[in-house]
């Protein structure tokens, strides 16, 4: 499986338009374009996540979760997690560690450099039983039991 983006480049710095607007940052908080291919046989849906393993919480920080993306969809346009572009009708955004559903961009403590891992997961079910109140951990727990494969793209921000 492969993930790619018109907006993000693996190992490079996250552009300002995808940075959080708050917590000392003045980004545009726009979710990036993401696309994927080389999907495993038997895929019935996808989940997309963004996770910061470097957050000083003991458990990282969930920046985005989108579940129940139909298997026929292999691209999320820029802004899909920010109500600028549309998500597929069946898709549901889960709660981030900012406390609400939807994309939340990079916002590391000042002076720190963090990794932001965007992952697409191919699942063997059409739907996970999660809603906009489900945490990143709950989403990950459900993905664990239905994963056929995944691909990740990591960017940095400081």
Automatic annotation (TrEMBL):
It comes from the Bacteria. InterPro entries: PEBP (IPR008914), PEBP-like_sf (IPR036610), YbhB_YbcL/LppC-like (IPR005247). It holds the Pfam family PBP. SUPFAM superfamilies: PEBP-like. This is Kinase inhibitor. The lineage of its organism: Bacteria, Pseudomonadati, Pseudomonadota, Gammaproteobacteria, Enterobacterales.
